[in-house]
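Q: Structure tokens for this one, please.
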Amino acid sequence: MNKLSLSKKIKAVLNEEINPLKFNDLNSDVGHYKENNMPLNILFILGFILGDGSFSIRVRDSGKGIWFIPMFRMFQKNTKYNEYLFNNIVKFLQNLSIKSTISYQKKNKLLYLNIEGIVNVKVFYSLLCQYTKWFFWKKSQFNPLNKYLLLANVGSRHWKEGQLALLRVIYFSNAFPKMKNNFDFFKAKIEIYFENKLSTAIKNTKNSSYEELVAKKFILYLC
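A: Here is the predicted structure, written as tokens:
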């Protein structure tokens, strides 16, 4: 019975027609699997997200300002079959103008499929948004990500209040994992960055009129 496939064991339990002692026929399909030629679709990938995927937004101090980097990751055990699957997903996403990469962590022996950056995550998210009714327990990640993308669309990185709003979305939503509670650290960095930008703008435009400042978008730094 140990050499029987699961489907044949179930048939035996249900008293369906099967001879568990006729191993010659049973062994013919042991260890052999037919190629799954069904094309991938976005719902298949959404199923992965609900199980083993997650969105996050990484906050990084570049030295010249604060960067907010949206990311998506999903993982599977590192096997040749999962690697093959992930490669197919990468090709599928590439056809949709979404760049993704595969990485491997030796410590936990897992394969990761990564989508990173505003351009790639925005396209990926727009595809998933058609199926919001299936988000279930991932809504806590999708909702703040949606707010992030809305803020990004209005060029929030160019003005102080926009960056502070992004920071609040990330740290007060409780949706994304955070290694440290460093909200105050990044808030102070944003304040200093825009103070310096404003000081430089005023210094370089001493003789400019208010209208000229608006036209040059320097007035955004006063927000």
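A few notes: Confidence is low (pLDDT under 50) at residues 20-30, 219-223. Residues 96 and 123 are 8 Å apart (CA to CA).
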